[in-house]
Amino acid sequence: MQTQQPAQAPSQPPPQAVSRAPWWAGSAREIVRALRGHESGLLGQGTRFAIAGATVTMVYLTTTTVLADVAGLPFELALAIGFCVSVMVHFTLQRRFVWVHAEEFALPLHHQAARYLTVAGIQYGLTAASTAVLPRALGLPTEIVYLATVAVITATNFVVFRNGIFHPKDTPVEVTSVEVSGAAGAPDDQPVGVLDV
Known about the structure:
Elements lengths: L27 H8 L5 H30 L4 H24 L10 H30 L3 H24 L11 E5 L9 E6 L1
Antiparallel strand pairs: 1-2
Helix pairs in contact: 2-3, 4-5
């Protein structure tokens, strides 16, 4: 008597993994949507950082100019108000737009604000000192020294903001036990020790 083998289903190729294009390769709407999310990584953070910087520059210039030229405030007062408004807008954009991530921030709001204001104060001091001293020392125009200083400070701020002010909470490391076997001279079925990883 012969046994019948069950009919086999026709062979189909294994399903292929769905390949997604990088977020920057989509339509304008898809790029904007992806750019706002935490999945965009360092490139997205850098792009959002540049957008926030350009926005704050416009707020600073517009506020100062309108207060001085339209409202008739003394320029120094308009400049101080424009600076304060731009600092508030910048902090808000950094916290809500630039450094978005799935986790909560490692620092509470008041600690972020304190660190941010400290960095802003240092930035102002360095800019004032470099534009006061370096043009004469290097024989360069003040504007060139100013632009170089701003470029260095902007790059430094990106790193400081990313790693020291607006960083996410660290994910806790899970500790698990792993049995280690097969040490020299020990039987293969006898555990040698336990390693906490």
